[in-house]
Structures are given as structure tokens and as C-alpha cells.
Amino acid sequence: MLLHLHYRVFGTAIAVSSFLNLLIPGASKVNPLLVIFVRILQGLVEGVTYPACHGIWRHWAPPLERSRLATLAFCGSYAGAVIGMPLSGILTDYIGWQACFYFYGVFGLIWYVFWMWLSFEKPSKHPTITQEEVIYIEHSLGDSVDQNTLTLKNTPWNAIFTSMPVFAIIVANFARSWSFYLLLISQPMYFKEVFHFDLDKSGLLGALPHLLMTIVVPVGGHLADYLRRREYLTTTSVRKVFNCGGFGLEAVFLLVVGYTRNTTLSITALTVAVGFSGFAISGFNVNHLDIAPRYASLLMGLSNGFGTLSGMICPIVVEALTKHSTAAEWENVFLIASLIHFGGVIFYAIFASGELQPWAEAPSKDEGLSWNPLENAFNDATQQIKGITTPVSVDGAKQTSYGATISSQKPVFATKEELVQAPPRDRYLHGNVDDREY
Hints:
Order of helices and strands: HHHHHHHHHHHHHHHEEEEH
Radius of gyration: 30 Å
Shape: elongated
Strand content: under 5%
Oligomer: single chain
Number of helices: 16
Helix content: 55-70%
Number of strands: 4
Strand order of the largest sheet: 1-2
Largest sheet: 2 strands, antiparallel
Structural class: mainly alpha
């Protein structure tokens, strides 16, 4: 049952991660290996947040509003970097490095209380939503989100792992995560080694790209939905244009960052590169809801898993390439990031799709049970099997059978023509002049 309550999974993951944040300062005093263990636990619990977020939007986001709603939610991760990077520097300078973990841990637990109070899994479960809103959302989604409990048996694994649109999303997520983790982890070191900035100044400059990202992501979502709603572009075209355009321009400006020696130009190019990548969020990061809304959380888990894999590989590559901390070594770092993005552009442009995939379509109505026991009463094809009429079932419970009956072409229930009103018998009102007596 908990698997269906994505909002609880999402909130609980944030709360557990926040609690583990509180343990890091104490763990560092005991043993460094214990810190590593706590961080691994944080990674495990945070791994469900993005899939759970997609599971929530599966029920709440109308098809023509998916881009703007999803991107508005996703921009929170970039806004967190905008606030967190300079704030962490301030807390470290004035209080100590432990203050960062305590502050974010307590803040996350407070947030969890409000989340569980104000969030609901589906529109129909919300206590204050209007009836018009519920009808609009559920009617626009149709039966695309109706599904039974996902199990290893009823999930179309073979179709998922042989679907090129799914692989297009995975490749795009890998490429985007590479640059995201590169800037999030290695950007302060880049500023320090190449431009000799101190850590405080690097923290403020490091927040600039993410600030632009916070602005661009929701703007791109609104623009994508506008193009789809006005039918200027198909959903597939919108996803490809935004994803490939954002990645392509980001790759170009990453080359500028790597090969320039001008401080202002490097900072400007880095900020613009990250800003353009914000448009790509309206491409691959919303695409799960297009091709398979029933399995959006599952697909997000797969693609985000590969994205996290790039986050593991990227720091190792950066460390191996920057052993001497020279500007020439950083050229190779940004060259590799640019080439990964160009590869993502080509792959996504060829194989991506914005259409609902056949394996993700809702099951036909005859696969489920109807609330109406007489829905198929006059349907000979479904009620009569091999000459024997079968009893109708209600909510999975088989009704009492009174024995087999002879099959015929007649309806199950005997029918006869009945007049709406009985023929009149009053001669004064309904007879002719001769019938009337005065």
C-alpha cells in the first residue's frame, strides 16, 4: 500500500536524510569510516525522491501542464544550491563546519511536518480542492494512470529495456548529471586552482549558475507547454528541441570555459552554459510522463540511477586529470564534459519520443472488474461461453449459480414490448361525439 503513497515515500526520504545529516558531526569524531557509512545511507534514501516525485505528478499534472509543473518542482534542487553554497560558507566561517549539517538537518525535519500536513496523493483525496479542479485533472489524465500494484511479474521489463525512447532518457540523464555533479563538486576547486579565488568568493560565484538555472527551468517549462497547447509543435518535437538545444549550447559554452584564460569570460560562459541546460529539463526530465505515465516513477528511478552513476564517475575522472592543478588539465575536464553532452544530443535527437508507448497503455476494460454487474448482461460474446451462460461477478466475488442454461441468440433476460401508458378506456374523454352521454 505504501508504494502507492508516493508523497509519503518522498517526504519520509527527505526526513530520514535530514536525520542522518545530524549524525555526521558525531560520526566524524568516532571514525571516518562511520561518516562514509552515514553518507551511503543518505544516498540510498535520497535515491527514491525523484522517482517518488514523478509518481506524484502522475496523478496531479494534466498532460498539457506537465512541463511547467514538473520543472517548477525540479528547480527547487537548483535553488537549494543557490542558497546552500554561500550559506554553508557563512556558517562555516562564523560557527564551524558542523553547523551546516545541524542547520540543514533540523530544517529538513521541520519541512517534513508541513509536507505530511499539506500533501495528498491524488486530487480526489484532497480535502479543500474544488470539484471543478478534480474533474478537470482526472478527465485530462483519463485512464493513463490507472494501474494495479506494480510487481516484478506484471511490469513489462522486456519492453522497457528494449525501448529506445527509454534509453534516450537514460543517456540524456547521464549527460546532464555529469555536468551537474562536475559543477556542484569541482567548481570551487576549479575557481581556486585556475583563478586563485578564495573559498568564500568561490561559493558566491558558484551560486550564480544555479541561480540562472532556477530562473530558466520554470520559464522553459511554461514555454514548452505553450508550444504544445497551441499545437505549434508536437510533444516529441518539443522534447527534442528543448533537450538538444539546451545540451548543445551548454556543450559549446563548456568548451569556452575550458579554453579561455579570461576570468570574466570564463565565469560568464559557465553561467550561460548552466542556464541553457535548464531548458533541457523540459525535455528528458519530463519525458517519462509522456511515454509511460503508468510507469513514470519506475523509469525515473532507472534513468536517475544512471545519472547518479555519472556522479560517481565524474569526481574520479576530475581527480585523475587534475593531479598537477594546472589550467591545461582543466581544459581536458571541460572537453570531456562537452563531448558527453554532444553525444547525448545526438542520441536523444534520434531515438527520443513524446508519444505514449504501446507497452505503457492502460489495460482494456475487459481486463478489470466493473462496478456495474449488469454492464455486460446483454453482451452474448462475454456472457456466454461454449453454450453456457456464466454468472456475473461483482468486485471479484462470483455470484451464486442456479445451473447452466441453454444458450440462444436471445438476451439473457426475457423482454416484451410495453406501452408507456395504458390504452384509454374513458369514452367521454377519449371517445367520439356519439359515445358521449349528456
